[in-house]
Task: structure prediction
Amino acid sequence: MSNKRIYLKRGKEESLLRRHPWIFSGAIARADGDPEEGEVVDIFTSQGNFIARGHCQIGSIAVRVLTFEQSEAIDSAWWQSRIGEALSVRKAMGLAESTQTTCYRLVHGEGDGLPGLVIDIYGTTAVVQCHSVGMYLSRNEIAEALRANFGSRLTAIYDKSSQTLPYNADLDAVDGYLWGSASEGDGEALENGNRFKVNWEKGQKTGFFIDQRANRELVRHYAKGRTVLN
Result:
């Protein structure tokens, strides 16, 4: 079955030609078929030329672009490919296979071609956090793509999206395991050789402020050999 179509106003495709991943509501001329929030839609210029495909949503950002290729269907193979590309980048960065750091951000939204999605890895657990309805509705496909790429290196996939979804989405989202389990949701992860306790079920963000890795390493450098207060 073909996707529903959205047509842009004349000249509003310029940002998409530069591969910008958002389409704002003011750029839309009309929609065929009355697409629902979270549904995959095809975007066409005012001249009727395909230009992008993405998740439809309510608000100033009307579409979050997933691909600019008409030949790419948003199916299980597509999800596996995108997650695989993100994993390859983390391997190249020395994160995904490090013996000294076992917690890192695998998917960072638009930066990995997956707008509205964050995935953090804590040892053998992946924590998925959806910031859009489209990503939330795709959470099971995301979990399958993670399992396909990580294999036995993952023992649990936890969805922690209840507090990050649009407040008016009415999805009744509840945090929980999409696959596997972990004892009390309390795990241990390494960062630059340091051990940290991470509770992804009850902690802030996805369980840990992963983006502060460089700052923690800097503190370790200056605090070495000293007694300091936390």
Summary: The longest helix spans residues 76-92. The radius of gyration is 20 Å.
